[in-house]
Design a protein that fits this description.
seven-stranded mixed sheet, alpha/beta, single chain, 3 domains, about 625 residues, Rossmann fold
Length: about 625
């Protein structure tokens, strides 16, 4: 490595500014010293003034008393009365001012004693005179007072002499401090001029250097632009490769799982067809197997839509504690009995706004993952609490808005996950489980549902210790749904009545025939249309229609606009939408519109029976 280049002009400039700073600080310090010296001078002058005032009070009191004794006129006693009232306080103030001078302290104490004695002599003479003693007989006390007064004058001379000495010394100190201050200011001024000149010269030198560097930078930028264009092209190729790789992983996973499920469906139906005439029981078993495979395929599609945040949600205001508390039987059937399940439900839990079925499904997915992480048993804990995600947390996590949330966590004491697995845990078809033990869509489905519900999900895991996955759903202050916590109906399927007429609108002929057959099987009278135009014609001719059962995605006019036109003609018409993939016609921001009844394709006869009956009875 080459030697580090030293910027000598910059160092010189910094040294100059340091010296200027020191000189300015020195000037400030000298200013404070000068102010202190001036204060001491004022202090000395104040002491001298108060000493003179005290001596004057005593002198005037003595003169006034003598005038009173000679003339008997009471106005001569005013200086005496003033001295009695004021002298002691004045001397106390002088003592306070002289506390900083040890040499003056005994003098002012003696001065106070003599002043009080002199006033005592004056008071005694005044009392005797007022009692009738002739003035000639007061001479002995007048002589004592005169001696005290002479001693006071001598003491006053000593006090003032010391103060004069201090005044001269302090005045000289004040003069020297002023001189030093002027010198410091002069040095500071010279430093400012020198630094300004140096900075100007150095600035011009640096400007020339900057212009030369700018020219060199322009050339470098041109070269960098050429290099950047080539790098951008290379990065675009890498991004395209990564995109294709991700699509390949996704399509490969879909193809693998769908082929397995189609193999079950096709093989089972083929066997059922062969056995139908020979062995009805075995044929029914094959049909059940086909239905199971088709159901798994429908579930896979639902999970892919959840991951893509495209599944239609039917949210409502939820009490999560009630939902979790009602899942005990479902969890027991799902995860078995070799795990110890604990629930910790927070008191005063806030409400949230989410699809209860999808939230329940997300919790089950997390519990299944926890079960698989504890093959030899362990403890699974489901916990709820109120949480606040602050600005700092939101800044550190993508798509998180600060605010109040309802938190649901699922914790296990299983094998845990290393950091590299945590980073990829939400990717579709990514799984660390063995072949046949998982599709790799469980966590991606949870992630998609939570994000579609404007929430946040976070994994905390340590290999060999366990895993905690926390779901945060935004707090909602609305009222609970009246049907919250109501048990799902069981038993026989609800059937319709022949006088209940349903119009089925579906552009796919086979799906339409299937829907019509299912509804007729349930006892309804059914009319059908292959598109919106034909449906409007049927509505114009048919005197009564109780329910419009329409596909959403159709050519020309979609199901939502068809329903709007139909309701314009028949305001009380009830509508049930169905589709395998929702567009913005009935779903906005991932949520079904408030007035929408919906059933997702594919559906079973049981599902359509329940939904149609619910809409007709609403």
């Amino acid at each position: 490595m080459g030697a580090v280049r030293t910027d000598k002009p910059l160092i010189a400039l910094l040294i100059g500014f340091t010296m200027l700073t020191l000189s300015v600080l020195g000037a400030v310090w000298l200013t404070e010293r000068q102010e202190e010296a001036a204060g001491l001078v004022r202090h000395t002058l104040e002491v001298e003034k108060r000493l003179a005032d005290a001596a004057s009070l005593i002198q005037e009191a003595e003169t006034g008393q003598r005038g009173y004794i000679l003339t008997g006129r009471t106005e001569f006693l005013k200086p005496y009365d003033l001295a009695r009232a004021q002298l002691d306080g004045d001397i106390a103030e002088i003592q306070r001012l002289l506390n900083d001078n040890a040499a003056q302290a005994p003098r002012i104490a003696r001065f106070r004693t003599l002043a009080n004695r002199r006033l005592a002599y004056l008071r005694e003479n005044l009392t005797r005179f007022q009692a009738g003693t002739p003035a000639a007989q007061l001479a002995d006390r007048l002589d004592d007072g005169r001696q005290v007064m002479e001693e006071l004058r001598a003491l006053m001379v000593d006090l003032r002499a010391e103060e004069e000495r201090l005044l001269a010394a302090r005045t000289e100190q004040l003069r020297m401090e002023g001189l030093r201050l002027r010198i410091a200011l002069a040095i500071s001024g010279l430093a400012v001029v020198a630094l300004g000149a140096f900075a100007f010269v150095d600035g011009r030198r640096r400007l020339r250097g900057a212009l030369e560097a700018a020219a060199a930078l322009e050339v470098a930028n041109a070269n960098l632009k050429i290099e950047g264009e080539s790098r951008e092209a290379a990065e675009a190729q890498v991004r395209q490769f990564q995109k294709m790789q991700a699509i390949g992983q996704l399509t490969g996973g879909i193809a693998h799982d769908f082929n397995n499920m189609l193999a079950i469906v096709i093989g089972s139906l083929d066997l059922a067809k062969r056995r139908l005439s020979k062995d009805v029981a075995k044929a029914e078993a094959c049909i059940d197997s086909a239905l199971e495979g088709a159901g798994r395929a429908a579930q896979l599609t639902a999970r892919l839509l959840a991951f893509s945040r495209l599944q239609p949600l039917e949210p409502r205001v939820l009490d999560v504690n009630k939902l979790v508390g009602g899942m005990s039987e479902l969890l027991r059937r799902t995860i078995g009995e070799n795990l110890r399940v604990e629930t910790v439900l927070a008191g005063g839990l806030w409400r949230t706004f989410a699809d209860p079925a999808q939230l329940e499904n997300a919790i089950v997915n997390l519990c299944v993952n926890a079960r698989d992480a504890m093959p030899e048993g362990g403890r699974l804990t489901i916990e709820t609490s109120n949480a606040h995600l602050d600005d700092a947390y939101a800044a550190a996590h993508q798509e998180v808005h600060p605010g109040q949330y309802v938190m649901i966590s699922v914790s296990d004491t299983g094998t845990g996950m290393p950091p590299e697995v945590v980073e990829r845990a939400f990717e579709p078809f990514y799984t660390t489980k063995g072949v046949g033990r998982g599709t790799g869509l469980g966590l991606s489905q949870v992630h998609g549902f939570v994000k579609q519900s404007h929430g946040h999900v976070k994994i905390y895991s340590e290999a060999g210790v366990g895993t905690t996955i926390k779901i945060y759903l935004p707090r909602n202050t609305g009222e609970l749904d009246a049907t919250d916590g109501q048990p799902r109906p069981v038993g026989e399927l609800p059937h319709g009545k022949p006088e209940e007429i349903i119009l089925v609108v579906e552009d796919d002929e086979r799906v339409r025939h299937l829907s019509v057959d299912a509804l007729r099987e349930l006892g309804y009278t059914v009319v059908q249309a292959s598109d919106a135009a034909q449906a409007l014609t049927v509505l114009a001719l048919q005197p009564r229609v109780d329910l419009l059962f329409t596909d959403v995605v159709m050519p020309d006019l979609d199901g939502r606009r068809l329903a709007d036109k139909a309701r314009a003609e028949r305001p009380g018409l009830k509508v049930l939408y169905t589709t395998g993939y929702t567009r913005n016609a009935i779903v906005h921001n991932g949520m079904l519109d408030a007035d929408v009844a919906f059933i997702a394709k594919p559906f079973t006869i049981e599902q359509v029976a329940m939904k149609v009956r619910q809409v007709l009875d609403s």
